[in-house]
Amino acid sequence: MMTRPREVASRRINGSWAVILCAVAATSGLGCDGGVEKDEVTRSDVTACADVSAGGAWWNQAFAAQTTRFTAELIATPSTSSIDAVVGLGDGSVASFAALAVAVRFNPAGTIDVRSGSSYRADVTQRYQAGVPYQFRLEVDLAAHTYTVQLRESAGTYMPLAQGYAFRTEQAGATRLSVAASKVDSATGTLEICGFELDPTASSSCLDATAGGGFVAVPVPDVTVLGTFDVDAFPGAPSLDAVIGLSAEPPARFADLATSVRFAPGGVIDARDGDQYRSGGGSYRAERSGLRVVADVTSHTYSVFEFAEQIARQYAFRTEQRAVTHLRWLSVIVDGTEGRIRVCVTGAARSTGVVYSREGSAEVVPLAGNEALLDDGTTVQRVDATGKPIAQLAATGVLAAAADGSVFLARVLGTTLTVERYDPTLVLRWRATRTVGAGAVIQALASRADGAPVVALRQTDDPSTAVIRFTAAGGFASQIAVPAGLVALDGDQPVVLSGDDSEVKVTRFSATGQVVWQRVFAGRAELSALVVDPLHNVLFGGALRTEIDFGGGPLPLLGNSEVDFSGFVVKLSAAGDHVFSRNTVMTQVRAVASNGSRAVVSGVELGNWFKPRLLLFDAAGTPTPWPGDTSFHSDIGTGDAVVIGASGRIWWNTTTRQQPGLSAAAAYVLALRE
Fold it and tell me: With 80 as the cut, is the pLDDT of residue 638 above it?
């Protein structure tokens, strides 16, 4: 065992070491500074590290003896993926496993587990890899002789590995802890321990409320836009009257709560919607309920999920709190005459860089001044820069905006293509129709420089794409056919992206259907994104299935143990020349957008499950992470449609859930600060 001072990735975010964030950035070719809010960063240059080696002595690091509740954090890096190594907490000099009250193990099977009484187990199966640092938060309650272990993820949130586990059987009566200790029990291998940090003032993440005891509250990240809160609730009986809520200040009465989730006497879980409680179908028994509350301070609404069910969708904040500007406290109270409940906060995160959000999926069209059109599949809204609706239309379709602020809306019903033009206040100016084949699908809609709309659509009985141009007054102008594929419109010039098992092809056509230029690249890829930016550059992406050279050198296939393909993005100039081509940290690129000076890429990364991802690139293709946090983008899910406005503001569609099978999936549209 060797202890030494070493500079680790010692960037501190909200009191935590961001080693994993930097490790992920390094593997993606990104700078370690990306994604960190500058006002949340302090610098700690040197941290003690220890190498605990197989066959060596126990490593011990003493700390001030703790006798109540406290939190400790440390970073452990295994040298192999099949080590048998333990790190934990005990009292005095630890020389045996039985002396550890708290223990986290990298087991020989390749997963991380935690000691609970007489055995090791975990609430979540978490595999580990050689050379990757893992940051643990240990929340210890000496009075209850229990502890919780959480693993810090790349986005800064914590994933619970073990919740409320009992001290090791031999230490069930321990009254104090004073040392961190580690031992490698396998024949080979090393466990590096870094950044051990103790917070004796930290309160437990669990709240215990009993009848007649009033509110019990804990501070959470201060939310001014969007906050995501995950809790495990353990009701003491199948029929309580208990409320879990969020508020700006520690609550003294129910009217202080902006959000309220209630374990009601009838055995159901309901939530407050403005001035009344409404049931969303959730039920509970005297056992664990996993809850997620997503609160949006900009719209004064919140949603609630319970395991695989959504029980509240965009409920209004309590009437008395509809002007609240932030949420800082999570609390629980038992309002009945008897009973108790334990609530453990397993995750709490606030957004940074999010301007506003909307639950659900929507097509978004950026407008001047950071205004936007939002089509949720039922209604088109024009919203201002803060997300406040300023005009509304009871219709849906494919949207485009003209330079003068007019709005085009296109849809197909049966065999009729309808194109409508609205003024900036969404008042109808004209409607044009044209007969098309049954099953026709609109692929793209755009406005020419003269304000005339152009529509590209595929018909089931036609292998080509029809490009139909109307006049600015709504009359029919012309129609051409171009080959099938992904289609983007640059005014009335279509660009088509297509591919097969041997090549990827990009072709720009003139308004009359003549080939302007064509580029063919040898190789195979799944193609899922195509866009033309305001400077007429062409950007596209998807997932490589073979190595391809798009003009900047071969892009390798960056597979992993789960997949054999990798996401990519390419930019060609208006003349079809190579500008940049890059691999991404994503498994698949699903959407690309560009305002000419910056490009944004949305997609998914597949490890044990899908994760949504978002990347920014400058005009030359240099990648930079988006410098913010959505409050749930480390969840499993997908990154979907994305657009970017002239100012750089991004609107991102993403689908997320906390864990597989543990919380219902939810879609969000997020307006991200430019």
Answer: yes
What span, in angstroms and rounded, lies between the C-alpha atoms of 68 and 88? 17
Encoded tokens for 173:
């009566």
In terms of Cβ atoms closer than 10 Å to its own Cβ (0-12, 13-18, 19+), residue 654 is buried
Q: For residue 247, report the phi and psi dihedrals to the nearest 5 degrees.
A: -150, 165
User: What residues contact 399, with CB distance under 8 A and at least 6 apart?
Assistant: 363, 365, 373, 375, 380, 407, 408, 409, 445
Say whether pLDDT at 57 is over 50. yes
Nearest residue to 19 (alpha-carbon basis) of 135, 138, 161, 160: 135
347, exposed or middle or buried, with CB in 10 Å at 0-12, 13-18, 19+? buried
Whether 261 and 291 have beta carbons less than 8 Å apart is answered as: yes
**In contact, 341 and 209? CB cutoff 8 Å:** yes
Contact indicator for 641, 376 with CB cutoff of 8 Å: no
**Which DSSP state fits 25?**
H
The pLDDT of residue 600 is 97
Closest C-alpha to 370, from 27, 17, 163, 651: 651
Segment 521-538, tens digit of pLDDT? 999 999 999 999 999 999
- Choose among 414, 406, 467: nearest CA to 436: 414
Give the helix/strand (H/E) hosting 364.
strand 363-366
282: nearest Cα among 320, 235, 217: 235
User: What average pLDDT does this structure show over 224-244?
Assistant: 90
- pLDDT per position as a tens digit, 577-623: 999 999 987 889 999 999 999 999 999 887 667 888 899 999 999 98
pLDDT at 627 over 90: no
What are 286-322's pLDDT values in tens digits?
777 889 999 999 999 999 998 778 899 999 999 999 9
pLDDT at 608: 64
User: What domains can you pick out in the chain, each with its CATH number?
Assistant: 2-199 (2.60.120.200), 206-350 (2.60.120.200)
Which residues, 6+ apart, have CB-to-CB distance to 609 below 8 Å? 636, 660
Q: Which of 293, 292, 308, 232 is nearest to 664 (CA)?
A: 308
Kind plus residue range of the DSSP H or E element containing 27: helix 19-27
| Pairwise CA distance, residues 310 & 361, whole Å | 16
- Write down the number of H helices and E strands in the chain: 1, 58
Q: Are 13 and 123 in contact (CB under 8 A)?
A: no
Q: What is the pLDDT of residue 634?
A: 64
